[in-house]
Amino acid sequence: MKIHIKYMVSNRCKMVVRAALDGLGISYGAVDLGEVEVKEDLSYERLAELRTLLNYASLELIDDKRAVLIEKIKNHIVELIHYSGDLPNVIFSDYLSEKLHYDYTYMASLFSEITGTTIEHFIIAHKIEKVKELLLYDELSLTEISYKLNYSSVAHLSNQFKKVTGLTPSYFKKLKQFKDRITLENI
Question: Whole-model pTM above 0.85?
């Protein structure tokens, strides 16, 4: 049985979910972003207990198929941008269609309807947060960051960064304000 969990976008979230399942004595297999393979059918009462534990950690069980698809879209984007090392040079629409087996136009329309933003803006927001993270680590040059995140040029990265944050990347780097970073759960 697969259960789907909203707002599960980081390794910390995976740890919280594992702890909740362990605490309830629920046997499980794979724990991925937004999805857990449970090895048993859960009664309504057990699901309610799990729902309560997850709510304490600001996570939610998802029952609606459309909401499940939205979370899968988000989780594939988060995984690709934040956890894949160098961002593969992919066309996001093709990548999502291939991974989720849905027509991209349908997914984009549903995503916009449910979230109030486009998939493209969601991707840009996550790429900019990754740029902020890399700037704060201060290990890569702006050229290396633009290459790592598949920007066509440093100018393109800089323009997009300024449009989203109101700051240039170099000015942001000088500020070194960690408070400007948004946690993955809140993007």
Answer: no
